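Entry type: protein chain
Record version: 2
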Amino acid sequence: MAAPRAEVVIDLDNLRHNVAHLAALAPNADTMAVVKADGYGHGAVEVAEAAVEAGATWLGSCSLAEALTLRAAGLTVPILAWLDPPGTDYAPGVEQDVDLSASSLVQLEEISAAAEKAGKTARVHLKIDTGLSRSGCPARRWSELVERAAKTHNVEVHSIWSHLAVADEIGHRGTDAQAERFDDAYREALAAGLDPRRHIANSAALITRPDLHLDLVRPGIAIYGLNPVPVPTDLRPVMTFRSAVALTKRIPAGESVSYGLTWTAREDTNLALVPVGYADGVPRSLSNRMDVWLAGRRRPVVGRVCMDQVVVDCGDDAVAEGDEVVLFGSGDRGEPTAREWADTTGTIDYEIVTGMYRPRVTRKYVGTRR
């Protein structure tokens, strides 16, 4: 069998562990595993199936299309879809029992029209903007939205919800301010005659703010084993990105490597060519600033990251063509992690793993139960 060119290995046992652990942190709330963006680059269907096996009672997607993909795969647990453009036909979602989010009267009317078309009641979660200033109904229009929803005969309001802006910054007063606004919105919903459930806790709030667990928690990045807060908790990274050595060569001192000749060997050294580059998710900004795990230790990538390849300095160590190269993983052996890439490039590990959904990068699942 050929060595992998560019492969992410998805450990579903680790994912199950993470979901079970997070659900146990909020024992009085339902757990929604967020699998949007193709499961943060891990594969939405496979992740969703494993999450449900581990105790997730809900699934979260961004778009209706994502939710319908989960339904088509045979997943029957409740699914919430929360962001689609105006004019979206929500009828297939209503028909497939997908819960839908509404942040405005227009969205509520579109969902009601879809319910009429489908001939059944739509289940809706009304979203209030408590301070993130993205989607969500502005507070000044909230009473109108909840009153209209209460009077819409073919819409059942299951929940009100919101999203936190700075829950990953422990002690930031913005989280308390959002929680207070959410309480106000809940009281207005009750005054309008609704009896909704409530959810606001993302991964960070699930781990650090048990007072915000309410009726449902929505872990996203944490189910993939990446901790958004500097608080130890038992999470296991799910994704490993690996390749294999395609070519080895020895160069003399004074020879340079890759475009721009930005790195020059100070002494004779062995090089290993690895057939992954920025087209495969390796940020070009990591040029001369990253390591890989190869032949039992970390080794530096030298020269610029190219579209299709990187070069590793192996010193006098002998490495062989076909040897496994781990670009990032759990860190258990000392290999680089997605967080390390994120910290070095000035981004977040969410972007790193989600960015691994690429045409040339294949996926291998371990811990499957089929």
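Comment: DSSP finds eleven helices and 19 strands in the chain.
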